[in-house]
Amino acid sequence: MDKTLMMNQWDKMAYGLNQMANLLAGEGVFDEQRLPTNAVLWVIAALYSAIPEAGDRRGWCERLLRKYMWRAFLTDRYESSAPTNAYADYVALRAVLLGEKGEEAVPIFDGQEYETAKAGQFAAAAWPKNATILGRAALAITLKLGALDFATEERVGVDNIDNRHYHHIFPDALLEEAGIENSYIAMNCALINDKTNLNIGRKDPLKYLTERYEWADEDVVRHRLSSHLIPLEALAHGGYEHLSDQERTEKVKRDYDAFIQRRAELFERAAEKLCEGQPLSISEFVQITAGQKP
Which residue from 11, 49, 141, 281 has the highest number of Cβ atoms inside 10 Å of its Cβ? Predict the structure, then answer.
């Protein structure tokens, strides 16, 4: 490392790192524990040297960076050889930002080579507390949407992210009793302000959540759940408490599988939009889960 060069360019480096941190925070990536891959950090920071400080051009450039970031999270581009691939993407992205090449020159933007994650992949994604790209990327999508707290409707942010806890949507105790071993997956996780998961036994998830958070208004419920891409209609089955052991086991398995599949489909839709650089909003998913045309 040329330390003299580093010191001479210190202000430029600090500026790029600060802008990178602001961009990630604006997309809902607030800390290392929720970062899907660190390969994007230096790429984005270094690219700010080719981006104007203001104006329409800056907006276009940052849209490109967001598209790059989400494709890094939601494709398998950085699952292996991440440093090499990140450098190749950086070189191409810089050329695009400087007007020397078109977006098609950026390897990670090749949709045939690097497909956006599909519903089946989301359904199998690991618990977001684990250091896997797709598991954390799934959580990142909900943070991008605000991940509203179930009780207070507080949006997640830099100031409260450390107070959030990983919550099982279908209770772990209910699934364990039914012999279901994959309760710790991304599609069964929501990050909410919740210090402990109570022992809720055989209660179905919507009944438990409704009782615990004193939900009464369906529109409020749907709005809060939609910020986590939780489909209300797939959660509102239940009725487990008075069934026989065999009936309860079979019904829990059916309901859980249907919930995971439906939620994974919503994540696929969100991923496609983010990887195309399109905006994402809670209202879109409220309409979808309410059976309305978005």
Answer: 141
